[in-house]
Amino acid sequence: MKLAYYPGCSSEGSAIEYDLSTKKTAHMLETDLQELEDWNCCGATSAHNTNKILAGSLPARNLAIAEQNGMDLILAPCAACYNRLHSTELAARKDNALREQIQEVIDMDFKAVTSTISVLEWLDDKVGIDKIKAKVSNPLKGMKAACYYGCLLVRPAHHTGFDDTEDPQSMDRIVRALGAETVDWPYKVECCGAALATSRPEIGAKMIYEVIANAKAAGAQCLVTACPLCMLNLDMRQAGAEKMFKEKLNLPIYYVTELVAIAGGANPVEIGVG
């Protein structure tokens, strides 16, 4: 399988282990990731809130690069990048005038024919659970995991459409294929607080705490995500939530690709897991 690969800005900084483990997982599952040359930031929250044309032009340029290289599918591991690229391609297909405006801004042919997929779509749908199971050499037996989807991977339904918006199961299927057990819990699509963790820490810390505490209450020994911002909040800011609520949480947070790679025999150190 050949996929265009859009690593996104966080892959070179705060989410470098996500990039390492995604590439390791791709190699293990015989997926040829071809990184887009000269890719640019998707715009994420800032552009989305600022200007409709700018919000579309930044991700559209990446889509246009994929088109020029004859790639019809782009893998975007970051949930925000996936959301921005995918929503832009859908909007451009629906609104030809918008597509033409964007095309003029980026000064590139842009037909919006390339589709963006998330890590969960890639693993669960394109690769398939049976193939993942077949590659497991180090099963994660004894692990009880809470699969955390967050806000952007499965909602809204008309935008994503590959999983249930209230009780998604794609990540659960992937983690169970690795030999682990997944817990049933009600916070799997609740928000982690996103940027509120920095702009309104008193609100963000409460949201972080509630996600982690709920996972622990359901019996989880770790939490699994597929979003760099969720990882940043739940892992790096976990100590702040502990301090605010005077409770030791001590819950490890993993990217789903880290677990796939480790179950497939990768050394944890080479994919950034301490």
- Shape, per Cα inertia axes: globular
Task: Please bin the fraction of helical residues.
Answer: 40-55%
Give the oligomeric state of the chains in this entry, treating copies of one chain as homo and distinct chains as hetero: single chain
How do the helices and strands follow one another from N- to C-terminus? EHEHHEHHEHEHEHHEHHEH
Strand order of the largest sheet: 2-1-3-4
Strand proportion, as a percent range, falls in: 5-15%
Tell me the Rg in angstroms.
18 Å
Overall pLDDT: 94
SS-derived structural category: alpha/beta
Describe what you observe in this structure:
The chain is α/β, with parallel strands linked by helices. It is built from 12 helices and 8 strands. The protein has helices at residues 16-28, 44-50, 52-68, 79-94, 96-106, 119-135, 170-177, 196-199, 201-217, 228-236, 238-245, 256-263, and strands at residues 2-5, 32-35, 73-75, 115-117, 144-147, 181-182, 222-225, 253-255. It has a 4-stranded parallel β-sheet with strand order 2-1-3-4. Strand 1, helix 1 (16-28) and strand 2 (32-35) form a beta-alpha-beta unit. Helix 6 (119-135) runs parallel beside helix 7 (170-177). The protein is globular. It starts with a strand and ends in an 11-residue tail after the last helix.
